[in-house]
Amino acid sequence: MSGVLSIIVVEADRDRALQIVDSLRLAGDFDIQVIAEPTSLARQIQARQPDVVLIDIENPSRDILEELALASGPMDRPVAMFVDRTEEGLSTAAIEAGISAYVVDGMKPDRLKPVLDAAIARFRMFQRMRTELAETKKALEERKVIDRAKGMIMKARGVGEDEAYALLRRTAMDQNKRMADVAQALVTAAGLLS
Known about the structure:
Layout (H helix, E strand, L loop, with lengths): L4 E6 L3 H14 L2 E6 L5 H8 L3 E6 L4 H11 L6 E5 L6 H7 L4 E4 L4 H49 L3 H14 L4 H15 L1
Parallel strand pairs: 1-2, 1-3, 3-4, 4-5
Helix pairs in contact: 1-5, 2-3, 5-6, 5-7, 6-7
């Protein structure tokens, strides 16, 4: 998200859409596009690939909220939703659906820029957390495979854990591969032979 932010505003009411666009223009230099008909929202957003999606809706239901959240791609970009009123549990459902900012009591021009900034910051924070979680899961899976391979070497060669680890490490270095890849190849080959 560098340079001029591209923002899609989802708002069916023309006057409200103009108010949002005017507020955004006062807040900064943005490339703004308005989608008035949310029926093909996912396709329109996919085609335009905006940096941020702002959705203004008077009274969302859980179904509409989930549909708008999924269509706006909250895992791909920050999504801020402005609602005039809400039912109990909808704010939680919005956050669980990936909405970066869920603002009750409608869109107020003076709050637009701070909410936009908060939505972007929150999205980036969750994006970092998802990346770290994926890397941690991958490292754990690789560790499990290496431990399995070590156990197989220990059993087959009658050696201790340190020697099995050293053998795996030396093989990885000789083949110019990662230890996890050598371990996975060993586990896969053993599975084929048994």
